[in-house]
Amino acid sequence: MATFTSTKPSEEETNKVYDRQIRLWGADAQRRIQASRVLFLGLGPANVELCKNLVLAGFSATVADHRKVDAASLGYNFFADAESIGKGVGEASVENIAELNPFADVKIGSTSSCSDAATAEKLVEGHGVVIVDVPCTRGSEEERKLINEACRKSGAKFLAVRCSGDGAAAFLDLGAEHTYVVETGEGAKKTTSAPQKASYCSYADAVGVAWDSVKNKKMAQPPTPFLLDRLDALFADRPTSKKRSRDEGDFVAFARRELAARSLGLDDTILARHARVAGKCPAHIAAVVGGVLGQEVVKAVSGRGAPTNNVFAFDAATGSGTALFASPVERAAAPKAAVPVDAIEL
Amino acid sequence: MAQPRYDHSVAGLGEANFEKLRTCKVLVVGAGGIGCELLKNLVLVGCEKLTVVDLDTIDVSNLNRQFLFRKKHVGKSKAEVAGEAIKRFNPNVEVEAIHGNIITNPLFKVDWFRGFDAVINALDNVDARRHVNRMCLAADKPLIEAGTTGFLGQVFCIRKGETACYECFPKPQRVVYPICTIRSTPSQPVHCVVWAKELFKLLFGDASASMLFDDPAAEGEPSSFASACAAVRTTSVDGASKAVGAALAALCDAEVKAQLALGTYKTAKKVPTPLSSPELTDGAASQPPSTITNRPADWDRAVWTAPQCSAEIAEVARELLSNDMKERLGSWEFDKDDEASMRFVAAAANLRCRVFHIDPLSLYEAKGVAGNIVPAIATTNAVVAGLQVLELLRLVEQKCILSEERTSLAEVGRYTYCQRFPTGRKCELLQPVALEGPQPTCYVCRNATIPVALDTNETTLQTFVDVVLKKKLGFIDPAVDKGNSGLVDSEDEGLARNLPLTLAKLPAGGVVNGTLLCVNDFQIDLEVNVEVRHKANKDFDEKANPERVDILTGAAAAPAVATHHDFISQNDENSEPAAKKARH
Known about the structure:
The complex is a heterodimer of chains A (346) and B (584). Chain A is of the alpha/beta class and 346 residues long.
């Protein structure tokens, strides 16, 4: 496979380019970032943004996408252009991704699907982070579970994100035991905590919980983007016999049924709108989601700061981005120092 | 029907609103960290009529996040390179890229702002934000503002009469250090860095403008270091080590001893200790850390010893005194990105720290302080730029712009905080709150009278114009009237003679306690009343307020913020501090 790297740069040279971020997260975090490779499965709207953010930060990247570039994808994939319509998404994008950062190694990965644990393990091998852009992969929920299990086995951090015109939902699995430190204060007053541990449940466990349990205090029901994500997952995986077209009425009726079965409900206007914008994600929404999740990946790999455990939901209608917890085990009481009461107050 | 490339936008917006967005004339001010992300978002979602302004050129330290730029673009105009890059993302876009200063360029009048449907700021400093805010208020255009600092950021909308404006709430002011703190009583590394910059000016720049300069015409003994410092500039390259050694010995040994003998530090908590002269003079002839062959990559992270500092300063002197640099002597200005001046300042600040028992800084740390470097990353910029476009789409969808109706932004606008960790009871990483309304105390959007306290017997009209009106209140070319009589008007030469007079001695009864002045600036279309209150100079705390001026209301009333990002110069990305928490 083609790789795009320049000659090995001197550390002094990279220090100059990374100066403004090293001043933020320190030299050690920067070294960990540069030693880490991210596998982007599906170069959809969210992964285009994540890929830009993480390659700029110094991560190396493997991009894999089974699709061909089409005209609509030019609305979010700025790595491809009109001339690349019809070419493979990976092939069309890899050169421009590599150009973002001559110090990062960028290559194309395999686009074959994973039918068993062994192929999933092979796919994940060599990567510190795996990010699935759900609507832009062939895979079903089952395949994502296989990939996640392979990540848990190899120690890779796992992220699955689904972005639409309404917002997004993302699942993070940083493993059964993720170690990190918490920093408080700035400059000379900065203090670093002793190592903390957080435990993440598997993707299978996270998506297996009762939907209604995934809400924060005082929420009447789970945030809309989370419910829409779960409905999309069910809708996409419904038996083939029932797949006719994805027209508005189909989805609305389906969603209403599934929600009612769980004693939940969403307004019909929300469902009807979602039927139109599911699978469509304008670039700016991807930018918001890719920015927040990019930061979570930096937290995860650098081991600095408590990353979200384990769901992030962004609602474009309200502008709210929420951290949620979807797990069969009780949320561990956070150690006192782990989450600073007001991390951002100086 | 919109082109297929816009499918993702049209799905949510509908054809009619998409068409409005496509033809919406958007001004983007700034093509840096936020600007690159913003421009990308705008052209991808389908905004085809863009104008982008930026005065800056591309630096290598931008490349970790300003992703429209490559190494080959270093030194080129940000606006122009960004404009070219986004045309490749969407060839339908008409982009006018202007390399220029939004504040001073005469092209950017209120009428020019009226030509846009929406203005989006992607700026890194308070002055430009304040200016664009005023222009948008004057032109009655919505402004979508954003700022980031490290992991934190915020996005909000402003529109005249509907929401709070940028200046409704206090903004951090630049810290001005009292001259005595710099010359005699430093207590923080930043004081030593400022001293080092002043020393650089004294040796190689406009010496008479340095805080360390002693006017030969003034009464009293000149400082013991004056002649030794003056000698550095006139020496030859070969004599540089010797001259530098002598100057440093005078500064860090003889002068300190002299001040101790004079009893300057009799009541001080910390008493300085002179450095050893031989260490400095011998050190000047030793190997400078920057020239060590095969120096480690983190050589700039190490704290230099005193002799190493001396050697480094001598090395810089040799470089600046060399024949091909000679003509710039006397005009050097400190620039954190100029290696020689940065090495000088790091070394000199280090020595100064040693004298005053302050932990010395490495070159890397000194650069952060001297250059007011604000950490900046791609992710935070991506988030706020995405949220800005989300707000723009809302303005279109909710009929705030491009519509016969004019929905108030008070109803649909949001103030969104970008947090590093889940915050508040909703555990939000992105935390939207309602926008505040215009604040009655705001002199910019509510024409509130500004009370200003100063010593009317000591303050000249010139100082009043420069410090109060221009620096603190952000006027560009103010005209000042007292009742019917004009006091200041740059187009009336006859009035120039007023400038050296103290306020109390001005014609028509003077400007004294209780005088109401009308200040008018056509460039920013702003007229405000200033109520002068007399407060004797001796009643000001000189340390906290060396300018001896109190602005008693509005954005300019904020206390100075003295972190190591001291806002003295605002030449770096995103120096607007992100809000610390939601106001609600």
